[in-house]
Amino acid sequence: MTDTHGHGPFIAAIDQGTTSSRCIVFDRDGRIVSVDQKEHEQIFPKPGWVEHDAMEIWTNVQEVVAGAVEKAGITAADVKAIGITNQRETTLLWDKNTGEPVHNAIVWQDTRTDALCKELGRNVGQDRFRRETGLPLASYFSGPKVRWLLDNVEGLRERAEAGDILFGTMDSWVIWNLTGGVDGGVHVTDVTNASRTMLMNLRTLAWDERILSSMEIPAAVLPEIRSSAEVYGTAKGGALAGVPVASALGDQQAALFGQTCYDKGEAKSTYGTGTFMLMNTGDEPVQSYNGLLTTVGYRIGDQKPVYALEGSIAVTGSLVQWMRDQMGLIKSAAEIETLASSVEDNGGAYFVPAFSGLFAPYWRSDARGVIAGLTRYVTKAHIARAVLEATAWQTREITDAMTKDSGVELTALKVDGGMTSNNLLMQTLSDFLDAPVVRPMVAETTCLGAAYAAGLAVGFWPDTDALRANWRRAAEWTPRMDADTRDREYKSWLKAVERTMGWIEDEE
Fold first, then answer.
1. DSSP structure class, residue 25
2. How many percent of the chain have pLDDT more than 90?
3. CA–CA gap between residue 299 and residue 143 (Å, rounded)
4. Can you point out the beta strands (E) in 243-301?
């Protein structure tokens, strides 16, 4: 608790995530005053299918908002705005007259639209809508999920064309309910979430009619696209009744914003199970020719939108879990650092964790994991070190792709997520990137980003410079490796990556 306990003013942020929903109350210094969190059920109707019950999520959101307000010992009058951040791409259709979802939400991880995506690619393939949307045709974007629901829920297409059905990602669902639901709820989304649907044109920031007709999605279901920081409406009931709802950002973009990456070339990387890295590329969308996604970073009010390049790595934190659970080489995740620190280097071993193929920048589903360079000299400590180096090298490959695509050199990398508590990994990252690596005081950068954007919208903070002044460094690592060693090691890593490819023969 901070010493501002009970005195205002504050900003509340709702984070509707993949496994849980939470609410955090922040003070003017961007410090956490209170937190409340609640998990929801993961529903797996068939292999590869993942769903959420949207009514359960809305109930949980109301509970965590009430909980956070109560724990802070404040009232709605002390809260100046509510910000929203959310799991991206998860897709919901609901009846605007009853407020009832027509089906469970289809989660971003769900792969049921694989065949549909191949069909939509026709003779063009993965890149059919890439120029307009910045995205490859893949099962995790929302557009194909909407089409699947329209095709598979009895009578739904007719109701949608009649204007009775609303589509939204989770930001839209939460905002619609917060602002009154069936009783005047506001049906909006922001540019960051809209840019993950595959239905929005990156340049015009409007729904793309050609793509809508190709995917057979009626425009009547779509929310209005708004900026990431503006007042959409006012909370109608609950613990924060009367408070303006003033921001929406997809979670990775919210982290970019919370990390105050407001200049071209500034980047953040979130180290969890996998890793998401986003780089601010300024007010022009940069088309990727190196396996990255082009996405909207954020848009403040009527200012120009800011674009980003995004790189995703499938296996980072989950490799440490694998070492613990499948290999039994460590008993806890924290132990990997101790074990890896007991040797000077990797002993010539390289570990490429292509467990489910390679993600950015390769997108090779035929790849599988390898440990290369083994000799009798190698111990489990060397392997542990190779495990940490794998996360750092994969980050290096994405930063290289970002530099090639954008022509902007990485100035510094701001990091967040669970793995950032590993100091050896952070030093290794800095060495391999040849750039400073910086970890902030407030680790909850996703919620913080939503709070910042909402605060800007209502004048709680004057401008992004004020937010930058708030950003406090908890730790910084600077490169200690000489260039020759770095280049030699990188070359060996890339050789190891080549060894992973083509392991799975084409099944067809």
1. E
2. 73
3. 22
4. 244-250, 267-271, 275-282, 293-298
- Sequence-distant contacts of 365-369: CB under 8 A, at least 24 apart: 365/504, 366/501, 366/502, 366/503, 366/504, 366/505, 366/506, 367/500, 367/501, 367/502, 367/503, 367/504, 368/500, 368/503, 368/504, 369/500
Helix residue ranges per DSSP H, 216-332: 251-258, 317-325
Task: Provide the 8-state DSSP code for 421.
Answer: G
Tokens coding 484: 């020759």
- Give pLDDT, residue 4: 46
Nearest to 74 by CA among 24, 1, 8: 8
CB 409 within 8 A of CB 266: no
pLDDT digits (tens, 9 = 90+) for 322-367: 899 889 999 988 899 999 999 999 999 999 998 877 888 887 777 8
Collect all residues with Cβ–Cβ distance below 8 Å to 226 and sequence separation of at least 6: 188, 189, 190, 191, 232, 248
Q: Which residues contact 356 (CB under 8 A, 6 or more apart)?
A: 314, 315, 365
> How sure is the predictor about 43, in pLDDT bands with cuts at 50, 70 and 90?
confident
Cβ atoms of 31 and 442 within 8 Å: the answer is: yes
What tens digit of pLDDT does each residue of 70-95 get?
999 999 999 999 999 999 999 999 99
Look at the alpha carbons of 25, 26, 27, 33 in this order and tell me if their dihedral is positive or negative. Answer: positive
The DSSP code for 91 is B
Alpha-carbon span 280 to 252, nearest angstrom: 12
Torsion on CA atoms 301, 218, 105, 201, rounded to nearest 10 = -40
Six-digit token string for 169: 């990602």
Amino acid at 358: L
Give the neighbor-by-neighbor strand order of the sheet with 267-271: 293-298, 306-313, 275-282, 267-271, 413-416, 437-440, 473-477
pLDDT tens, position by position, 173-186: 999 999 999 999 99
75 to 5, 119, 247, 462: CA distances (angstroms): 12, 52, 20, 24
First to last CA, the chain: 59
Instruction: List CB contacts of 58: < 8 A, sequence separation 6 or more.
Output: 173, 174, 177
CB neighbour burial string for 298-336, b if at least 16 within 10 angstroms, e if fewer: bbbeeeebbbbbbbbbbbbbbbbebbbeeeebbeebeeb
Range list of β-strands (E), 100-162:
105-106
Give the residue, 447 or 19, on which the prediction is more confident. 447
Whose CA is closest to 76, among 244, 247, 246, 242? Answer: 242
Scanning 185-326, the segments in alpha helix (DSSP H) are 191-194, 209-215, 251-258, 317-325
Element holding 371 (H helix, E strand): strand 370-372
